[in-house]
Amino acid sequence: MIVIDGQKLDLEVKKFNNLEELLVKVMAEEPLKNRVITDVYVNDEAFSEIYPHQAEDIETEEIEKIEIKTVSVDKLAIDITRELYKVINLLLKGGKEVSELFRETNDFEALDMYQDFLQVLRDFMGMIGAIRQELNLIAVPHLEENLEILSDLFTEILDVQKNEDWILLADLIEYELLPHLEEWKKIVSDLREEVKKVAKN
Question: At 140, is the secondary structure helix, strand, or coil?
Answer without folding.
Answer: coil
